[in-house]
Structure formats: C-alpha cells, structure tokens
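Standup notes
- DV: blocked on the single-chain target, sequence here:
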Amino acid sequence: MGFGMKRSMLTLRRQRDVLQFFTPMEKSISSESVRCVAVLGRQDGPIDAVEQYCQYLSSALVAEGISLELMRVRWAEIGWRRALRELRESTLEKRNATWFLVQYTALAWSRRGFSMRALRVIRALKSSGARCAVVFHDAEAYSGSRYVDRMRRAVQIHTMRQALYLADLAVLTIPAEIIPWVPPRAQNIVFIPAGANLPSPETVWKRTTDHGTDSPAVAVFSLSGDGVRAGEVKLIAEAVSHAAVRIGKLRVVVCGRNSDIGGKELKGKLAEAPVEVTVHGLLTAEQVVPVLGSCDVMLFARGPLSTRRGSAIAGISCGLPVVAWEGWETAAPITEAGVVLVPQEAKEGLGPALLRVLCDEPYRALLAERSRRAQQRYFSWSAIAAQYAVAMRKKRD
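- DV (later): unblocked, structure below
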C-alpha cells in the first residue's frame, strides 16, 4: 500500500493552508450578471446526485448574480455522434453563456468507466468561445487488479489530466495536494468541497436532545451497491452491537440509496442485539432532513470521510456528530466539523467511537456545535456558491 501511504494525509501545515482559502470568506468581485451552463453526462439512478448538486448550486448562485442552467449530453440515449452534434447546436444557441461547467464522474461519460469521450465534450464546448470549467466530483481513478481494471484506471487518469489541461478552471471537491495525478504547479485549480443535497437542513438544529422514553438513535444515510454493501453492513452492525451491549437499547435509522436491501441485511445481523432498526428507504430530500435531525449521531461507513462525500456532509449539515473512518482523503475543512475519526487499521472498528458519542452528552453537544459551524462556514450552498463566484470572476478578469 505504498501508493496509499504516499497520499495518506495532509500535515497540519497543509490543513492550515487549505483553510486559508476559506478565511476570510471573499465577496463577489463584481455585481455584473454571469450566465453559466452546467453540462451533465449520463443520468444516474435512482437519484442523480450530480444533477441535484447542480440544482442546489444554481439556486445559491442567484445571490451572487450568476445564473446556472442545466444541459445534458444525451450520448446514452442517442449515441455519441448525434449527442455531440446536438451539443454543438445547443452551444450555438447559448452563445451568450460566460461559462460551461462540465460535471465529471467517470460513469457519466462511459457505461464502464472508460471516460475519454469527456474530452470531446470539453473541446466542443471550447470551440464555442466560452470559458470551460470541469467539476471533478470523483478525482480518484477506480481500483482493481485485473487487466481491465488497470486499463480503466490508466484511461481515467489520462482523461482527468487532459481535462485539467484543456479547462480554463478545474473545480476539485478534495484538496489538490492529496490527488496524485494533479500537477503540483497547476494554476487553474480551485478547491470547493461538496455540499449536502438537502433543503434548509438548519431547520432541525434547534430540536431538543431529550428523548423521553425513546432510545438514542444512530443515523445511517445511504449505502453502497452490490459487492461493497455487505462489508459496510457488517461494520455498522459490529459498531452498533458494541455500543448497545454497553448502554442498552439503541435505534438505527436507515435511509437513502440502497437502504431498502441494506436495511434488511442490517436487521438480520442485529436480530440478537438490543437494537431496533427502522428502514425508511429512498426518501425525498425534504423528508431526509427531519429523519436525520431526529437522530443523535451519524455512522458513516462508506469509505474514509472526505469533502466529496455528500452523504456524510448531510449529517454535518443537519448538525450531527459523525463517526467515520479516517483515510487519505480526510482533510480540512471537514476535520473542522464535529467528526470522530477512526483509523482504518483500528481492530476494534467504529464501535468505541460511537459508544463515546452516545454516552457523553457534553461531548456530543460539542461535536454537534462544531458541525453546525462547519456547515455555515464551508458546506452550506451559499458558502459554496460564493467560492464559485470568486473563482469564475477571477479567471474571467
């Protein structure tokens, strides 16, 4: 794991450098209206998180004097040749757009993750004369040891490097310093963390912490798909069992992506433990907020905590402490929130950290306050939109 160790963590000095980007918050450079178009690839299902990201960003950018409309490249429906022709025609109609913002994930531009055709999209947009930004929602190439995995990884790294070279601006949702393929002297990069795709999560901040007869509640928001989910469910079950055995009955509230099947699997693993599992399934964003707000802590097992993990940031945005793994992507400003980080090599897993949060009410309240402050300062859509406005206007000027 030498490669992983090389990327492992920012030093404290690096974290301070990253935080300097956010403090003090810069104001919009100009009140002049700016028109932008977010360019999306293949639609994801059952929920397209990138599309939601663009919708929330669009609403927040209005306060910055920036309009953002969404446009999808329909290559999955009509093929690449017709989709690119349609794209060129659309860009002619949108000639007054100041910026095109290409939303990059590997699967948005290829069914199997061979994402090189995203470069054709960038070139087509650049030919219109407008500035082009690339928003890297996934800045890490896929893992795997098979020959096809190594080829896919090489294609993805090449694609991302070329996209960075072609773009007028590259938006990274994790710090550039911890991404191995990013050139250290690249000048067109800005780091803007992801936000939670939730409306007004601050509305649940004032809820009472007195449960009455209710048991403490642990939120699990979104699980991975087949092949990975079983491991996540196992880790969650072990952590919750560890806490329940020591403090008594607990509630686990499961919602979001893959929660229907994952919740059933979790119920099976916790059948003998003093744990009540409530599965809400796939909810609307409006429904998610009160569900998360009713809990005491979020348990996040979908890999290391990161500024690109919108499902983890959802817990922070709702003012919850978050217990999660620490990894190479874990860096400021998410470390400023009320997070309890557990090294991935920890044999005892997430259980002891979860137990402490549930048992120590002052500690839990302190973590919750840190999450609320981090939401306001870094992860709210108004804070994110302000950073976009500054970056785009600086590049234009």
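- Follow-up: The longest strand covers residues 297-304.
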